[in-house]
Amino acid sequence: MKYANLTVIDTVEGVKSGNISCEELVWEIYDRIERSELNAFITLNKENALAKAREVDKRKADEEYRRKKLLGVPIAIKDSISTRGIQTTCASKILDGYIPPYDATVIEALKREGAIIIGKTNMDEFCMGTSTETSYYGPTRNPHDLSRVPGGSSGGSAAALSAGEAVLALGSDTGGSIRCPASFCGVVGLKPTYGLISRYGLIAYANSLEQIGPMASNVADTALLLEVISTKDERDSTQIKIKNNATTNYLAPSISRYEDASIDKEIKGMRIGVPKEFIEGVSPAVEQSVWNAVHKFGDSGANIEEISMRGMKYALASYYIIAMSEASSNLARFDGLRYGLRTGKDEDWHTTFSRIRGEGFGEEVKRRIILGTYALSAGYYGKYYLKALKVRTLIKNEFEDALKKHDILAMPTMPFVAFKLGERIKDPLSLYLADVNTVPINLAGVPSISIPCGFSNGLPIGLQLVGRHFEEDAILKAAFVFEQV
Ligand code: GLN
Hints:
This protein is α/β, with parallel strands linked by helices. The chain has helices at residues 8-17, 22-35, 46-59, 63-66, 105-112, 155-162, 179-185, 219-229, 251-255, 260-267, 284-299, 315-330, 349-360, 363-376, 382-405, 428-433, 439-444, 472-484; strands at 41-44, 74-78, 116-121, 168-173, 188-191, 211-216, 271-275, 303-307, 408-412, 448-456, 459-466.
């Protein structure tokens, strides 16, 4: 392999200087994908990607091309994100064959900056899951151990990155779907502050919780991709106004190469809180590895303090009620009339609607629509949905308090390493419980990054760093410094 383990920075520089042939690079990536056992992709974009690569090679010296931040970078896109002309299924039978007529805002940004879309990655159906096993297109496997799950729901994106089937990837995160697979596959994944990235073109699961976010093999590449996708967009009313209409610059603080002395300078005096509720109950190997990581920050001059966030025990229940309630309403639009699946002959509305949804949705999706509908129904609304919203406010306040006293919070991303395929899928509750450390972050809307911090029996462990709203630069900086150390 000529182009193994390329970073984004190396790729862009290599393509611009002519040291890398973009077309050869893209061929090599497809060669790897076609021989792969991972099932990381649902749809490939081979012809278009190769044509685009040839164009990049031809025009790389043009002024316009030289300015592109992701020139020639092969990127994998989670199949929950709409791509014009490329099948987008959300890993559901009900959307099988659906080809969006428009691009999500983040895809427009990627194209503007010269990235090359390799294909659409496998995921849990409608982002509902933690293992990429609920996909209609079969599970994805973990590159570190093919008998294990890659995490989910952005499991295809994480597996592809980890196996060199893409240089960069996009995921989406409603309750951990970027950070969990990043942790299980040993890559970096960032869930941005709610409202930073446009959700226009993201197929909705639970709108009040989810964000599209960057995934990469290192922190600087993650920062660069975040910078590219955080563009202002009038089409998402929940997006905050980004200053000066410009993209935010996350790369500067994290990319400069630190000498040891400046690492100490960056970290010295940084206040890092470690909430004990996020450590209790995790596996001994994960606990050990995360404390080792935290002590590295301590050695570089950070002030480490163990803290308590007592409301966290209610986060999972609150999250699942809110997520399922929003899902039950969002998924009403999939009726077989406007998108995807259309089977049998048309009868009266109720019969046709029920038949298509019955055939088109998988078991987990149906379970959530039913539970969400129940939680929203008259008589139970106050008892479940409203109560979950109140708990959410308490959790958000607790994060704000903790982040007043501390610059960042550190904790394990997942309570354990990647589990075996088939091990938990039969018992939905055991899968939900795996999200215990990731869902509180989405309830609070704060940003969080997962970075590799060790291994247990050859399987990666993820460290999660959480920051204040819109302070992605702080967690990126800390993550970058940790990576260097
Ligand atoms: N595992 C969580 C769920 O199933 C989170 C998934 C996600 O972030 N999309 O809801």
